[in-house]
Amino acid sequence: MVRLLFEGIVYLLGQAEFISSFIILTFIVILLSKSIKRHARSYYWFFGIISFLILLQFLNGLFHISPVNLYRIPVLGKILASNIHMVGFGFPLLAIIMYVGALNPKRPWVKKILNIRKELSIISGFPILSHSLIRITYNFTDALKFFSDKDAYMAQNEWAKSEMGISFSNAGYLLGIVLFVLFMILWITSFDSIHQKLGKHKWKRIQRWSYLLYALLFVHSILLHIGWMMSRSMGEGGNEHIVQGIIAIASTVLVFGSYLILRIRKAQKDSRKKARVLLHS
Ligand code: HEM
């Protein structure tokens, strides 16, 4: 039974990584909510050390300091990789932080997540920093090369079969830099010391930018998947990638689309409530 459940989870993670990670991580976050609140600093240290190891390995790769490759170490390698590739951890975590804002705060499990929203935002910064470090160094610079001379890029990169597909994914990589700047502003202002310095009103005004971040996250993900699907479908053995691409896009549309509907409904409900209070005062 346990083996069957485990195999089912592994299968789901392989086929629909984002949506299954989103659901599993939601359960984990709820289960760990008390511990995250109580030992927030330990969690920051844990994810901070992972990001530091990623930085070390990154520098090692650039300057060939040591033959050790941290990604080859069992378990640790997987943890490091999952903190660079957003789909298994950083993305579902951001989606939870976003989604919980559209739910009824009176529900006990929603309350539990809302109570640690700030801590989760700080934790999410570590995988995003690692992701950005690697992606800005490689994909962003590659995207700049592509848009500055498309013909030369297509000629130099034989794997690039569809110019349109490469345009989509590279537009997604360029958008990453906007996401990075926006996220850094929101992340730094999540820390209590900065929050207090800014004051409540200024802080709230800045945090409203998180809606733009969510919208751009959606666009980043969709551009990448459309681009990869188009480039790969032109290449060999495309079918499996197309199915996975469609599942990834459908999952992202489902999560972000349902969030949008719930958030608009909540805003309407809140404004009706405010109007009633004003009427009776
Ligand atoms: C210039 C900076 C960036 C570049 C070039 C870039 C590029 C990429 C690439 C190549 C992937 C797919 C592989 C992987 O998961 O690592 C990806 C995925 C992703 N990135 Fe970025 N990224 C950048 C910055 C960011 C930032 C700052 C965020 C968040 C605030 C972010 C959020 C995501 C998400 C959520 C995914 C998963 C998309 C999905 O699988 O549907 N990226 N990015």
Provide a descriptive summary of the structure in words.
This protein is mainly alpha-helical and 281 residues long. It has helices at residues 2-15, 17-31, 33-38, 40-63, 76-84, 90-99, 108-115, 117-148, 150-156, 163-188, 192-198, 200-207, 210-234, 239-280. It contains 14 helices and no strands. Helix 2 (17-31) packs across helix 6 (90-99) and helix 4 (40-63) runs parallel beside helix 8 (117-148). The chain has one domain (2-274). Protoporphyrin IX containing FE (HEM) binds at residues 18, 84-87, 91, 128, 131-132, 135-136, 139-140, 173, 176-177, 179-180, 183, 217, 220-221, 224, 248, 252. Protoporphyrin IX containing FE (HEM) is lined by residues 18, 84-87, 91, 128, 131-132, 135-136, 139-140, 173, 176-177, 179-180, 183, 217, 220-221, 224, 248, 252.
- Coarse shape: globular
Largest sheet: none
Name every ligand kind in the structure: protoporphyrin IX containing FE
Rounded to the nearest angstrom, the distance between the terminal CA atoms is 60 Å
Total separate domains: 1
Uncertain stretches: none
Count all strands and give the number.
0
In short:
This protein is mainly α and 281 residues long. The protein has helices spanning 2-15, 17-31, 33-38, 40-63, 76-84, 90-99, 108-115, 117-148, 150-156, 163-188, 192-198, 200-207, 210-234, 239-280. The longest helix is centred in the last third of the chain and has 42 residues, at 239-280.
